[in-house]
Every structure is written in structure tokens, then in C-alpha cells.
Amino acid sequence: MKKIFGEINLTWPKVIIMSIIVGVYTAVMAMLPVAKDTSFSDLTVTFEVWIFFGIFIIMNSKSAKDSALKCFIFFLISQPLVYLVQDIIKNSNLFSTYYRFWVLWTIACIPMGFVGYYMKKDKWWGLLILVPMLLLTAEEGMGYFSRMMFSFPRHLLTTIFCISALIIYPLAIFNNKKVKTVGVIISGLLIILIVFTCIIKPPIYSTILLSNGDSYQFDDTYKAYLLDKKYGDLRIECDEETKDCMIYADFKRAGKTELILESPEGKKTTFYISIERSKYTIKEKNN
After folding, report:
1. DSSP character for 182?
2. What is the mean pLDDT of residues 224-241?
């Protein structure tokens, strides 16, 4: 790891080639249906891998100015490519829609790359520079740990990446034993926080599945439940004034099962339901 973070001759051609490869790869992962909602497409929406690239460039730069310019050029090339490649292939308009947000981060790479270079000085204030990157990596890691719990093994690789990065960064960046030790302690506490928070507050996807109306008639005398209850809990609630009734769901994990709506007389209407982290599909089963 020490070689990756400080012992690579990172020339300008290497930076440019790397930025093109990363930009194109990210665009492809964003378009591939098989990569959707997996670790392979996570870098298209969150920061954890881009933080790694930033630290990699910083630690292999020759000066603060060199670090600032290389970080800026890397993101100036890679980020537009993510959208432009998709625009060309899909005939979409992603660049003009989303790059306005990312261009601000690209500009911010100049001061961040300049200041970040001073982590190489192996001083206490170098750890202070690293801490915001640890916090952001931990935040992303907590989100993916939660998503992994809900839809295992999706996002497993990203979760492992974030947790590993938290430990590797202080170990690889610093030689000063005291600074390194404090950095590892901070990362260890962040990892404990991630695991503890996700365990005591497991992910729940709460939504409304059905409402009574033209297609389906039911009230609070009906029963609604999932064939496999490991996926979550259902309940029927009715408004006392309007008499409108809805089936509410608290999903606990992703997967496919059946929803049964049962009348007081025992008549059952069955639905196929496919659950994801933040959406679902439901279709009546032909009985």
C-alpha cells in the first residue's frame, strides 16, 4: 500500500490516460442494466472511489502545485466523460443537466489538491487534512452498509471498500507512529459507529402498496400479509372521515414474494411483488 500512496511516478500522460479510462468505465457502468444497483455502479452516484483517486494523485504528486493541477485535470477530464459518453450512446442530455453540479467539485479540486499535498509532511496537521475525507468515506460506507443489509449481497464490495479505505489511508499515508495510531483509532471508531448504527437501526423501506378504489375494494376487516414474512410487515389503515383504506408496508429486505389480500369471508387476492431498496413492482396473480 505504501507503494500506491507515494512511490509511483505519476506523470502527466498517466494522469490523463487514467482520467479517460475512469470516466469511460463509470459511464459504461451507469448504462449497463446488469450493473444497476450494484457495487460496480456505485461510483456513478457517490464519492468514496473518487476520494481514493484524489488521495492517490495527491500522494504521488511532486509538489503542492503539481498536486492541485493534476487533481483538477483528472476530474476535469473524467467527470464530463461520464456524461458525454452516455449522451452520445443514449442520445440523452445528462451533461447539461448534471455537470453544473460536478463542475463546482472540479474547481474545488484545486485548493483541495494543494492543501491535501501537505499530508505528505507526516505531521499532526496532516491528519487534520485527512479527517474530512475519512468522515465522508464513513458516511458513504454507512449508507452502503445499510443498503447491503437490505439487499445482500448487493453493495457488498463497496461496503468492504469503504471500511478498508478507512483503515488503509492513515496506515499508508503517515510514517509517524503517533499520527498513524491516532488516525487508525479515528477510523476504528468510525467503523464501530457504522456497524452499531446500522444494527440498532436496520434499514426499513416504508411505502403504500394499494388503496381501495375502482380496482380493489377492501377495508380494515380485511387482512393483508406477505407469503414470506421475512420481507416485512403489512397493515391496513382507514381514514375515519373519508373511509379511504390503504395497505402500508414496512419492507425489511429486497426480494420477490407474494402479497395476499384476504376478505373476512376468506376470499384471497394474490399479487406478485418485487422489492428493492427504494421501489417495488406489484402485479396481480392470475388465480
Report:
1. H
2. 92
Reduced to 3 states, what is the DSSP secondary structure of residue 93?
Answer: coil
The C-alpha atoms of residue 283 and residue 261 are separated, in whole angstroms, by: 13
| Cell 499515508 found at | 173
Taking alpha carbons only, the member of 152, 156, 130, 142 closest to residue 192 is: 142
Number of Cβ within 10 Å of residue 229's Cβ equals 11
- CA Rg value for the chain: 24
Please state, in angstroms and rounded to a whole number, the distance separating the CA atoms of residues 220 and 224: 10
Grid cell at residue 245: 383504506
Rounded-to-integer distance, Cα 107 and Cα 67, Å? 13
Residue type, 116: G
* Contacts with 160 (C-beta within 8 Å, 6 or more apart), sequence order: none
CA distance 234 to 246: 10
* Global pTM value: 0.89
Residues 6+ apart with CB under 8 A from 68: 109, 110, 111, 113, 114, 117
Q: Is the pLDDT of residue 112 over 80?
A: yes
User: Chain centroid to CA 203: how far?
Assistant: 14
Map residue 148 onto helix, strand or coil.
helix
* C-alpha to C-alpha distances, 179 to 43, 64, 110, 204, nearest whole angstrom: 30, 21, 26, 39
Dihedral, CA of residue 131, residue 136, residue 140 and residue 142, to nearest 10: 50
| Residue at 264: amino acid letter | P
